[in-house]
Amino acid sequence: MPLLIRNGCVYDPLNGIDGEVMDIIVDGGKIVEEAHGGETKVIDASGMLVMPGGIDIHAHIAGSEVNAGRLLRPEDHAVDFEAKTRVTRSGVGRSIPSTFTTGYRYARMGYTMLCNPSMPPLEARHTHEELDDTPIVDKATYPLLGDWWFTLEYLSRDEIEECAAHVAWMISATKGYAIKIVNPGGIEAWGYGRNVKDLDDPVPNFNVTPREIIRGLCRINILLDLPHTIHVHTNRLGQPGNYATTIETMDCVRDLAEKDEPIIHITHCQFSAFKGDDWTTLRSGAEEISKYVNRSRHVTLDMGQVVFTDTTTMTADGPWQYTLYELSGNKWINHDVETETGSGIVPFRYRRKSYVHAVMWSIGLELALLIDDPWRIYLTTDHPNGAPFTTYPRIISWLMSAEAREKTLKRINSKAACRSLLPSIDREYTFSEIAIITRAGQAGALGLKWKGHLGVGADADIAIYNIDPKRIDPSKDYMEVRRAFMNAAYTIKSGEIVAVNGRIVKSSMGRTIWVDAEKSPRIDAELHRRAHEDLKRKFREYWTVEFENYMIQEDYLHSSMRMTPGGDKRSNTQ
After folding, report:
1. What torsion, rounded to 10 degrees, do the Cα atoms 462, 464, 465, 466 define?
2. Which neighbouring-strand residues pair with 114?
3. Were both Cys, which of 274, 344, 362, 442 would link to 420 (CB 3.0–4.6 Å)?
4. Average pLDDT, the chain
5. What residues pair up with 539 in beta bridges, in sequence order?
6. What is the mean pLDDT of residues 349-355?
7. What is the rounded average pLDDT of the residues 505-531?
8. Which residues face 43 on adjacent strands?
9. How far is CA 19 from CA 416, 428, 461, 469, in A?
């Protein structure tokens, strides 16, 4: 049935619409100029805020790492659960919710697209099973390629085209979306009880450095014309003084940018923005990073905001997780994935009165408020590392209200509050800027041309919030803003109403979006043939599975969308 959303206050930054009262027409799962026949359902959105469906560029929601975290933390299940309804299944978990619970909770907040940022290629099958099991939202996932032996071997010889053929195969074989790099070289070094110290520290047993890994994979990403940039978790993450490494990482690919557009994404940047020599002298490096980003066009970031709460940290960065284990004394999992990557998991609690935790809380907000262009930085918590994704409404209220930030500043460690840059920052985000950092900007960074906006032809993924931007002042009424973003009045996915006032009314199946990178016209057939022969030989030597059993067939995914390099949609499978 066609759908008419009438008289909503619309924020659609990609189309230049900033709080205009207007109608939106939906038909066949798309936004259209006019519906064609049949009865039309009407939603009266008078006095309500209308935005595209939310997009999360970086949230750990599926796969072996996430599932191991669920097993590690039975106490996380006890504090939060979803009761079964006529429409929904039951589920558990606060910081690591089960698959169905994840889909429901995102949909309640008006989110319709999620990106799982850390997939060991060997464990892609499990990841896709969990993504298929996550209802309502569309999904994509990033294979970990920065410490893959093929990458290290080819880049050590500067064989970019040969490495590109292997990377293209891996993305297609695992049904991935983007090149993910975590602590480049450090994960491989961790297999020998070591880490890398800086961008020019050689990786053990491979004649290659982190700088060469980052630059090489950036060149490959450009060569393959993938829709998203390289997605980089920097070296020395979580270590005092790492802000300098982050700036050096961004700058090391500056010369590769041929156009005035991003070629590198620094993820959960808060964890990579520390100044100081040790934990006692820790302070914010947000100002230096923001200055660099403000004068550069080749980089985007996401926040990785910390919220004072109990959560679970998980990352492919095994050395960092071991450091967290030593700092916290909490239980710990570390995992090595054959020739490919690693991971670690540690439960954690961020405390207001901890000096270090309070500084981290301040850094994430400082980055978002000091970077001038909201199209360059996006709202994330690195779920669940900084906090569960369900804390997004609270973070939105901090961004929109200096008063809300000041209220929290009064409750945190006094030494950290005195050193925070937040009291000197008057900036308050507008609703349009919130739409950018939670929707439009993320869609643009991902190359999803049919998402993140409400123009004709876009997917009919829409969030309607019971708040009137013409009536309230977010700076003063920040609690009202927070309540509104916690439970959307309506969430519409692919033209169907799936949530009403925070209640799931339809549990539909979202799609998994992946890139058939082997279809890149810039890698010739002979390179692909040689890559396949090399892969088959190496699989017999190194892997515990056969080459033929490693690949994820397209029909294995319950519902998917295949893209080809360049960002164009090519086919849907159901």
Report:
1. -170
2. 56, 139
3. 362
4. 95
5. none
6. 97
7. 93
8. 5
9. 37, 17, 18, 8
Place of tokens 């100002």: 287
Could you tell me the end-to-end alpha-carbon distance of the chain, in angstroms, rounded to an integer? 21
Q: Which long-range contacts (CB under 8 A, 24 or more apart) does 477-482 make?
A: 478/397, 478/398, 478/400, 478/401, 478/403, 478/404, 479/397, 481/393, 481/396, 481/397, 481/400, 481/401, 482/393, 482/394, 482/396, 482/397
Q: Which phi and psi (to 5°) does residue 258 adopt?
A: -85, -25
Long-range Cβ contacts of 20-29 (<8 Å, 24+ apart): 24/50, 24/454, 24/462, 26/2, 26/460, 26/462, 26/492, 26/495, 27/2, 27/3, 27/495, 28/495, 29/459, 29/460, 29/494, 29/495, 29/496
Residues 6+ apart with CB under 8 A from 546: 539
What phi-psi label fits residue 485: left (phi over 0), alpha (psi between -120 and 50 degrees) or beta? alpha
Q: Model-level pTM greater than 0.70?
A: yes
What is the residue type of 502? G
Place of tokens 């979803």: 82
- Checking if the pLDDT of 574 tops 50, the result is no
**Lookup result for tokens 């609270």:** 394
- Write out pLDDT tens, residues 249-292: 999 999 999 888 999 999 999 999 999 999 999 999 999 999 99
Residue 206: which pLDDT band, with cuts at 50, 70 and 90? very high
Strands 49-52 and 462-465: antiparallel
Q: Which amino acid is located at 135 in the chain? A: P
CA 198, 200, 203 angle in degrees (round to 5)?
90
Q: Is the pLDDT of residue 311 over 50?
A: yes
CA distance linking residue 140 with residue 319, whole number of Å:
26
Contact call for residues 166 and 156 (beta carbons, < 8 A): no
Is 62 within 8 Å of 124 (Cβ atoms)?
no
Encoded tokens for 301: 């970031």
In this structure, what are the phi and psi dihedrals at residue 127, rounded to the nearest 5 degrees? Answer: -60, -45
